[in-house]
Amino acid sequence: MSNFLLEAGNRLQKEMKRLGLDQAAVAENAGVSRRTQYSYESGNTAMNIEYLDALRRLGADVAYILMGDDVPADFPVFQPPALYVVRDPTPGELDDLVRLYREAGTELRAAALRVLGG
What we know:
CATH superfamily of the largest domain: lambda repressor-like DNA-binding domains
Distance between the termini: 48 Å
Strand content: under 5%
CATH topology of the largest domain: 434 Repressor (Amino-terminal Domain)
CATH architecture of the largest domain: Orthogonal Bundle
């Protein structure tokens, strides 16, 4: 294992902690197995571009993970406004959503559809 991979894995763990994410949540949202996630964190495997992009979408500072404190001050870093862990709604949540939509007025329904991309 290279020193670079080990250091990147350590910084990955720090970013996960900063974001309040555990190994299972990151693996699921990044589309990798928990074994692969562990391998990235331990520095046994190099992170691929798709994984790094998934980390970015989760709010991780990918530049820091890759370069540590050597990131130039003017390096552009995307920071989303909030972290959302995507999961399928439960049947009860779907029922509530449909009920609330049916009870909403015309303007609120239109706004909800705009937000949802409809």
